[in-house]
Prior knowledge:
The structure is a homodimer.
Chain A lengths: L4 H9 L18 E2 L10 H18 L4 H4 L2 H14 L6 E3 L3 H19 L5 E5 L4 H13 L3 E5 L9 H8 L4 E7 L11 H10 L3 E5 L11 H4 L3 E4 L14 E4 L1 H4 L38 H17 L1 H22 L6 E2 L12 E4 L3 H10 L2 E2 L1 E3 L3 E4 L8 H17 L14
Parallel strand pairs in A: 1-11, 3-4, 3-5, 5-6, 6-7
Antiparallel strand pairs in A: 2-8, 7-8, 9-10, 10-13, 12-13
Amino acid sequence: MPFDLADARRRDAENPLRQLRDRFLRADSELIYLDGNSLGMLPVATAERLAQVVRNEWGGELVRGWQHWADLPTGVGDRLGAALLGAAAGQVVVCDTTSANLHKTAAAALAYQSTRDPGRHVVVTDDRNFPTDRFVLAAVAAQGGGELRVVEADPVAGVTSLALQTALAPGDVAVVSICLVDYRSAALQDLAAVTRQVQDAGALMLWDLAHAVGAVPIALDVAGVDLAVGCTYKHVNAGPGAPAFLYVRHDLADRLISPVPGWWGADDLFDMDADYRPAVGAARFQAGSPNVLGLYAVDEGVRLHAEAGIDTVRAVSIGLLDYLVALAEDLLAPLGFSLASPQESARRGGHVVLRHPDAYRIGVAAVERGVVGDVRPPDLLRLAPVALTTSYEDVFTGLTRIRDLVVAGEHTTVPARRSRIT
Amino acid sequence: MPFDLADARRRDAENPLRQLRDRFLRADSELIYLDGNSLGMLPVATAERLAQVVRNEWGGELVRGWQHWADLPTGVGDRLGAALLGAAAGQVVVCDTTSANLHKTAAAALAYQSTRDPGRHVVVTDDRNFPTDRFVLAAVAAQGGGELRVVEADPVAGVTSLALQTALAPGDVAVVSICLVDYRSAALQDLAAVTRQVQDAGALMLWDLAHAVGAVPIALDVAGVDLAVGCTYKHVNAGPGAPAFLYVRHDLADRLISPVPGWWGADDLFDMDADYRPAVGAARFQAGSPNVLGLYAVDEGVRLHAEAGIDTVRAVSIGLLDYLVALAEDLLAPLGFSLASPQESARRGGHVVLRHPDAYRIGVAAVERGVVGDVRPPDLLRLAPVALTTSYEDVFTGLTRIRDLVVAGEHTTVPARRSRIT
């Protein structure tokens, strides 16, 4: 069957989530947006709710709003946990940034483990992990009197079971932290198997779900995961700078102490003369005042995903990704592109990465052509057709435009990489 | 001269900032809002800008927005620093929460000091400091292998020079952190004198400006302050959960390392394979993705304050506070209220506190009467007539209503304190 517009439209007509596409703002009908894994699109309901919250709640209720805003971090956390994380109530709190939450949970895990057994002082991660994770975990290990052990990851498949086995073998590992979906290759780890492997070695498992949440089904409770963090501005569509989340398994929470024990993590916010007594459950990992606007945006994003159902999202996502991979093979492979993500869709998250020596300049030129993906050094073009917002027609049109611009050599006039790129 | 409505209106007519009052949303014209030091009112321009940012920037620019959003934390920081902190560019960054920023700056200061001189391992604060500060500083001291030394503060005057001298005498202090304006008594410290006293003893000075910024003129550069943190949702009118800020003196910044070295504090965001190289200046204290919406709200709040001028704000604030104190003496002292703030206006920040054995129940009953202040355990009613948003008529009406409700005994039916109050 040929790849053409009619074929793409036939596929779209069969998409069970096609009607949700109208729930997002489309300011530019010509724009092909394939970067929802970096910043998700704006749900119309979110724009309306934020406007209402600003005027009626901040403007109208003023300080009295805290009587209900105070419950947002755990309330939205519970709803996020139920819809997208497979987490029962009380274990998820929406707060701070992924970086801050990784710092807090990793530091608490290392302190807990090394207090029980001074021999357990090693933090394990991988050499291809996201920059924040590598930087923060190194700092946590140093601050906690521990040691960072960096596993070599495969550029496509990510961290292998064998590499992890070698890292865990000495029996000195306190906590392992890797990403469920790799931010470059999209490699999807086996949540339950890795968690079990880590726990069997006596270590705690701390997942970074940034690129996974909202893209793939996640079952934290079933897998017995210890700790997790992630962001909400990608596949959860909560907007730039929306608060991140963290998960702490219910029977573990009360044994962990946040290294940033701000008053919002205390048991009683207004018992102001008392010593610090941490709140029960994941809520103790809050520190300062909640980002109220951002929390409402997370709530709306979660609501949309709950309506779609994460299993349906995943099925639609795989359809779109497989189509994109096949189309890229057809249109782009002859121009020097190759797939740098796992071939098998079950082993990928919600995006794919194509390799091309000129990826950076092609990515910039594509934006000029109205196709927004993103590039990652040194030679990767990252593309995400997102189940809730992207059509097959978008993918067809987007890849066709990329082929055309490369054929026309439009990218050859783009200057070399600047320091800050999208 | 009698205190009456006509007198209050005469005073309002002479207020040089009276026209700025119309720049804030007033959803309920009967509401007397005396809690702008807890949550500042909503500027109309902020509501409009947030709506525009949500639809046009998030919705329209999508991920391309980061090309300019990325500059917000330092750009808004520079404008905040210029308008309200007496800080030249490059030293202020708007990010995270006050709790998180206090943790990062205090931990960095302790690490820096104790590396230069292992004998300098003590963190000093006071026993009446805000809960977050006491909790976080204790944790920082413990995590850094140091020790917390808690100075006894006077309930009204706050930390005295003598108490500080005693705490500094052993020569082992790494960093001192207290509030410029006390959250309960409103006691205003002498920024320059305390900074000098601390630095003369070889310690670094870390100010918490939460209740001071936007209420009193602050000259960080002139005073040679080392570090400062503060929030923006009080007198800066940036809304619930708006990001906080931190200040690091320019010649100190490059010697300090954030304990949460997330990728947003790195020198090059997208040099993704590199080791952590911190950004130049205060920007290195960023960690995760900026709270874009909150940053725009801070920017609008700062703009309003810049237009008013902090010296005018302070003059108007003192007029309102002196009036409130005199009126309270007249209307409320006979009912058992007493001033628990310094008598002299030059020694107070932007609010005052009245003591009454039934403060909690009176505060709750006052809300029912349309007068919103707040209460702090055990017996304090905190009231803030804010220069940009409160009129003399508001103060007159508010205190009259409080007198009337106490005379009528309306507070006696209010149940005892719940866990969470505003």
